[in-house]
Every structure is written in C-alpha cells, then in structure tokens.
Design goal:
Layout lengths: L2 H7 L3 H7 L5 E3 L2 E4 L11 E4 L4 E4 L5 E2 L1 H9 L3 H8 L5 H56 L2 H6 L1 H18 L4 H12 L3
Antiparallel strand pairs: 1-2, 2-3, 3-4, 4-5
Length: 191
C-alpha cells in the first residue's frame, strides 16, 4: 500500500463527513445519509466505515475520504490531500493529479461521443419517420382509388398500414400516432 493510501485509511470518513455538516444515521454496520451532492428527501447515500467508502445510489457520487472533501469543497486532488493533512512526495501527487486529469478528459470524450451518437440517431429516426409517412400516404392514396373488391385482396398491405403507423408512434413516443402523423405532414408540407 502506498503512502497516500495508508494515510487515507487512518482518517475517519464518518468524522470528516459529519464535520462537513452531513447527518449520518446508523444502519447495521454502515451509515446512511441524504446525499450532499444532490437534492433529495430520502437518504440514498451509503457510507461503509470499514471500507472508508461512500456511494450514492441516487446520483452515483462515490469515493473515499479524499474524494469526499474534493467534491464537497470543490478542491483539486492535491488540495484535498493538503486539506486532510496528507503528505506525499511531490512527484507522486503530480502523477495522481495527472491520472485524474486523464480520467476527466476521457469522460468528456465519451460524453461527446454519446451526444454525437444521439444526434445521429435523431437523424435516423427523422429519416425513418419520413419514410413511414411516405408509405402511409402512398398506401392510403392507393386504397382510395381502388374498388372495394381489390382492396379486400390487398389484406397484407392494409395490415402493414397499421404497423407503419405504430412505428411512427414508437419513434415519437406519443400516444396518438394520428396526431404525430398529421403534425409531421404539416411541418414538412407534405399532403
């Protein structure tokens, strides 16, 4: 165990959290509290004193005593170590700070990729919606021009009309597919 780890283990996470104004309630061998990192009415943050670890089931905030003071007081990792009185060789602190910066950059890149995928998916759903609306329009127009005897023979096509409209509803997540269909036709000017 490195020097920072051994020093962190000697610091009481429960005491640090209470001194920061967090009210902890004993639950068996662990503690629970309202998460100090998001608004809530029911405790969702679990603190395990044996492991010197906290985890919020509501927002996902988690970590050890250094992580807690960094998040709670808005400190960098080296500032958190200094706040807790943990001493370490300067190069080791820089290495840990560099690793944290790399993790933060990785999170930002992943978030940017997720946004790009979301926009790509939105483009696809818009395209698919327009295809479905075109199929519905074409099918309706065709059915209106045919005599009833021929419409009866096109049972499969008539059934597909309902399926396409259902897909429109799924894409838009609205309970009234006719409304979405009409709104789309209005927005695109397609009649």
């Amino acid at each position: 165990m490195n020097d920072i780890q051994s020093q962190k283990q000697r610091i009481d996470l429960i005491g640090v959290m209470e001194s920061a104004g967090v009210t902890l309630q004993k639950q068996g061998k662990d503690y629970a509290c309202l998460c100090p990192f998001h608004a809530e009415k029911t405790p969702s943050c679990l603190v395990e004193p044996n492991k010197q670890f906290f985890y919020c089931f509501g927002c996902g905030a988690n970590g050890d005593v250094v992580d807690f003071v960094c998040m709670h007081y808005g400190l960098t990792f080296p500032q958190g170590l200094e706040f807790l009185g943990i001493k370490e060789q300067t190069h080791k602190v820089r290495e840990i700070a560099r690793e944290q910066k790399q993790k933060d950059q990785h999170k930002k890149k992943r978030s940017a990729r997720q946004r790009a995928l979301y926009h790509e998916f939105q483009g696809w759903t818009d395209w698919y919606t327009s295809v479905l609306v075109g199929l519905v329009d074409t099918t309706r127009a065709l059915l209106k021009t045919l005599p009833w005897s021929e419409v009866e023979q096109m049972d499969g096509v008539v059934r597909q009309l309902s399926t396409w409209k259902y897909h429109l509803w799924l894409i838009q997540r609205v309970g009234n597919e006719d409304l979405i269909y009409e709104l789309y036709r209005e927005k695109t000017g397609k009649r």
